Amino acid sequence: MKSIKKFIVASALLIAGTVNAACINNDAWVGRDKTLHFGAGMAAGSVATLVFKDPDAGFMLGASVGFMKELYDKQHPDKHTCSFQDFAVTALGAAAGAYGTAWIVTPNFVGFAKKF
Predict the structure, then answer these.
(1) Distance, CA of 87 to CA of 81 (rounded, Å)
(2) Residue 21: Cβ within 10 Å count
């Protein structure tokens, strides 16, 4: 739980430092794009959890993938749109993938405290 708090604070600071006119904050929360972001975050979180055997690491890696994608979008505003909602949905997918995978793979996984 401590690492999740650190990650959230670090992400918030990074986002606050990089968001400008190229990023939008009034993007829709649902749609095909958000489904793809959720799925990509979920896949990255699941695979990282299996590789590192740590759902916290899986979540952080999956959310970092979403953050890096939005930084890429910010650098290419002619082809892509940087969006806080895209990052948030990707991070939510990463959490679902990481902790869901840990829960399914490890029957005695309880909350965030127990690692497998």
Answers:
(1) 11
(2) 7
- Sorted by sequence, the CB contacts under 8 Å of residue 26 that are 6+ apart come out as none
Q: Supply the pTM of this predicted model.
A: 0.75
Q: What gap in Å lies between CA 44 and CA 22, rounded to an integer?
A: 26
3-state SS class at 108 = coil
Instruction: Give CA 114 to chain center in angstroms.
Output: 21
Residue 31 and residue 107: Cα distance in Å, rounded?
33
Question: What phi and psi values does residue 107 have, to the nearest 5 degrees?
Answer: -60, -30
How many CB atoms lie under 10 A from the CB of residue 2? 8
**Rounded mean pLDDT, 20-41:** 84
